[in-house]
Each structure stands twice: as structure tokens, then as C-alpha cells.
Write a structure and sequence with these properties.
The chain is mainly beta. Helices cover 5% and strands 50% of the residues.
Length: 259
């Protein structure tokens, strides 16, 4: 028992050994939305209010809703030309273009073999990452051909969070953060010492642990705490070296100093 405690302590020290990352306060803005999805480099805001996805640009606002599919489970806007929405209750994914017009509607109940999907995220060109609860496998699924391009070995434990870019996908489970390439090969496996949310930006990872944000560079396994005021973090977003924190009433904007 003591050996296990010392091992956990050793791993925690190893993972959090580097100096903290400083942050500079930029702004605080009142915001009333059900969910803040993303803010891009052009300060376009993606939000959900009353189960409607809204894209707030400087000159206009676009809206999308599909009441027949129930509540929106997740929205991923990594590729603004191919946004993906997931409706878990109906096991369905919708791909939208930048005008929020439907590109395709993927009804996984009708795709053989049957897949019970719990999470999806963006892939490259006509693919999305999907987690198949039946097989416990992460698949890179081509929605144009309805074929799986690649898949991982089965993953144990519940999936807490998923995030991806065009070439890689990360899974957060109660035990580990798994990193995969687009061939489905495992490229990293980092112990989860209490992380509850995950974001990716440029290959770097950002996680929450006990209401505190941490940063992990893509070339290291060590996490660095991000120095921030004590805030209620309902949601957080990362765009390059900018962090947005939403507490349910206000949106806080901070610039990170990672050097």
C-alpha cells in the first residue's frame, strides 16, 4: 500500500516539476449563454442558447437548430468549414459548412456494422474521430464512404473528454490521457492524476485539475500550472497562447507567457 502511495507521489512530482506559466489579464466581458463552444483568431464566437448553435461574427450572426434530434451533445469547430455537431440521444452527427448549411447527416443507427457512439471529434478532410462504445475502440470514420480508415486497440475506462486536430486525437479517461495518430497507433500514454477536462492547441495540451489550469507542451510529458486568479471555471478555451475562461456570467481573457 505504501509502495503505491509513493509511486503516485513520484509521478505527481515528475509531471508537475516545471516552473508555472504566467498570464496577463486582457479583458472581462459579460456573457449569457448556455454553452460557450469556441472563439477563433478572428474573435468569432460559437455559442449555444436554447439548443441553438450561433456563430457571432463582427458583421452578422448565423444560427442552426435541429429540434428533431433533441439536445446538442457536443460541437467541434476546429475546421470552421466543416463543423461537426453530435446528438447522442439519436446517435447522429451533423456536418455543417461555414454558413451552417448541412453537408451531411450521419445516422450511425443505419450504418453497418452498428456503432453506439459516445464522443466525436474532428478529423482530416471527410473524416471524424468517433468512440464506439460497443467495441471500446476509437475510430477514424470517413463519413463520405461510411468506412473506418483506422481504429485503435480497445480502451478501458470511461471517456471523460476527447480532443483532436487533423493528425492526432487525445482521449481523457480516469486513468490516462491517450494520444493517437491518424493510423490509430498509440503515441503517448500519460497518467491522469485528477484531470477532468482536456483541450488541445497546436499539439499542446491544456487540462483542468481541482479548478486549476495546467499546460503540457507537445515535446514533454510534464505539466506546468498556469497562474490565474481564483475563478469559477465553467468552461475554458484556448486559441494559440490565449486562454478564455467562462464562469457562467463573465468571459475572462488572458494572454499566456509560455517562455
Amino acid at each position: 500500500m505504501h509502495t503505491i502511495k509513493y509511486l503516485i507521489l513520484f509521478l505527481s512530482i515528475k509531471l508537475f516539476a516545471q516552473q508555472p506559466i504566467k498570464s496577463v489579464f486582457i479583458s472581462k466581458t459579460e456573457l449569457q449563454v448556455d454553452r460557450l463552444i469556441d472563439i477563433d483568431n478572428f474573435e468569432t464566437q460559437y455559442t449555444i442558447v436554447d439548443n441553438t448553435l450561433s456563430v457571432h461574427k463582427k458583421d452578422k450572426t448565423l444560427n442552426y437548430s435541429n429540434l428533431q434530434l433533441g439536445n446538442i451533445t457536443t460541437v467541434n469547430v476546429f475546421n470552421p468549414l466543416k463543423l461537426n455537431l453530435f446528438y447522442k440521444d439519436f446517435n447522429t452527427a451533423i456536418i455543417l459548412d461555414n454558413r451552417l448549411a448541412e453537408i451531411t447527416n450521419i445516422k450511425f443507427n443505419d450504418v453497418l456494422p452498428f456503432r453506439d457512439i459516445s464522443h466525436i471529434s474532428t478529423g482530416n478532410d471527410t473524416s471524424i474521430w468517433i468512440f464506439n462504445q460497443n467495441t471500446r475502440e476509437l475510430e477514424l470514420f470517413d463519413y463520405k464512404t461510411n468506412k473506418t480508415r483506422a481504429k485503435t486497440l480497445p480502451v478501458s475506462g470511461n471517456i471523460i473528454d476527447i480532443h483532436s486536430n487533423y493528425n492526432y486525437c487525445w482521449l481523457l479517461t480516469p486513468s490516462f490521457i491517450y494520444g493517437y495518430n491518424y493510423f490509430g497507433s498509440l503515441i503517448s500514454k500519460i497518467p491522469n492524476t485528477g484531470f477532468t477536462s482536456l483541450k488541445e492547441n497546436g499539439g499542446d495540451l491544456y487540462v483542468i485539475k481541482q479548478k486549476q489550469l495546467y499546460f503540457k507542451g507537445k515535446n514533454t510529458d510534464q505539466f506546468r500550472i498556469i497562474e490565474l486568479p481564483e475563478l469559477l471555471i465553467k468552461q475554458f478555451l484556448v486559441t494559440e497562447e490565449t486562454v478564455y475562461i467562462y464562469d457562467g456570467k463573465f468571459l475572462y481573457h488572458y494572454q499566456l507567457i509560455t517562455n
